[in-house]
Write a structure and sequence with these properties.
The chain is 33% helix and 23% strand. It contains 15 helices and 16 strands. The chain is globular and about 70 Å long.
Amino acid sequence: MAATMRRAFRARYVFPVAGPPIEGGVLTVEGQRIVAVGTTADGDVQDVTDFGNAAIIPGIVNAHTHLEFSDLTAPLSQPGVPLADWIRAVIAWRRECRGDVGSAVHRGVRESQMHGTTALGEIATAGWGTDDPGVKATLESAALGTVVFRELIGLRAASVPGRLTDAQAFLNIKPKYDRWRHGLSPHAPYTVHPELLRQCVELAATNRLPVAMHLAETREELELLAGGTGPLRRLLEELGQWEEGVLARGSRPLDYLREIVKAPRALVIHGNYLADDEVEFLAEHAATMSIVYCPRTHAYFGHDEYPLAKMLRRGVHVALGTDSRASNPDLNLWEEMRFVAERGTIAPAVVLEMGTLAGARALARGGEIGSLERGKFADFCAFALPVDKAREPHEWLLDRAAKLVAAYWRGESNA
C-alpha cells in the first residue's frame, strides 16, 4: 500500500472526542495522518472501509502500566492486601519467579494492542535497554507509541549519585525509530530521597521530559510522611533502606506536588488520598499536571471510594491507566473505562475522553494523538455496536456488548 494512498473509513458513528459524535461519520486518512473528519470522504479516495453498525474512536491511551509483570496470570497476593505486604510479594516474585523481562514486555505490548491501545506510559525498571535489549527492541518494532519512564529508587543519601547516573545513561539511549520517548519516574515518596527527586525533576526540565510519580497511594504513605511511622517504615527497615531524618516530619503529598510541578509534564499516579488543598493544587496546574487513576487496581487494594467526581468538578486533569498485571487481571484499558462508566456517576463522554485525549495530554502527546482531528496521527479503533434500539451514542459505545473489531496505528492495522 503506497504511503500517500488516501483512504476513507466509515461507521455509524465517528467519535472525534474533540467534538460531538458524528452520525454517518467518515474518517479520511492519507499516509500516517488524518486529513478530514466529517460525513463525506475528502478528496480522491482510493480505498473505503465501511465498518457498518460500528463506532470509530481515537486509539486508546493507557497512561500508566508496568509491562515487566505481563507474564503474570493473576495479581500478586489477595484482594485488599496492604501495600507493604503487596510490595513484599513483588520483591519475592522478582527474586524467585521473575522470568524473561523482554518476553514479558513483548506479551504486554501484544495484549495492549489486542485491546485497542495505541499509546501507553510504561514504567521501566533497572537494566532497561542495557541488561535486556529485547525490551527496547520490542518497543521499537511495536505498532504502539510509548513514553518510557525510567524508574528511579533510592531513599538513602548514598544512593543518589548512582541513581542519577542511571537516569543519564537511560537518556543516552536513543530511539532507533519514533515509537518510544523518554520520561523519568522517581518512584514514590517512601523510596526517593528528596535530593534525588529534586535533581530528577531538574534533569527532566533540562531535557523537556515528563515525570511520573506514585503519590498519595495509601494512608500508610501519609502516616510515614507525617510521622516516620507505620507499615512502610517497617518494610524499609527490613530492606535496609530506612535512613532516619531523610523524610522531614510533617511532610505531605503537597510537598511533592510542589516539586514535580517544575517538570514540563507531571503525572501523579493514583492520588487515592489527596487532601482538598492538594486537589486544588492539581486543578490550578491542570495544564501541565495530570492524575492517572487506575480503577480496577484501586478496587483490588480495597481503597476508599475514589474522589473522581470531585476531581473532575474542580478541574483536575484525569487520565486512566491499567497499572500492571501484578494488581489487575489484564491490560485492557477499555475495561477500566467500562468499570468507571458502569458506576453511573461520570458521564460516558467524559469517560471516553479520559481513556483517549486525556491520556495523550498526560503523556505530552495531545498535539499528535488522542482525538480524531486533521493533522493528527491516524491512531483509531472501531467497535461493533450492539444491535438494539438507539441510545445516547456514548452510552451505546460503552455498552458491554460493543466489541473491538479493528485498531490502527499511524494509519496501518496493528492486527
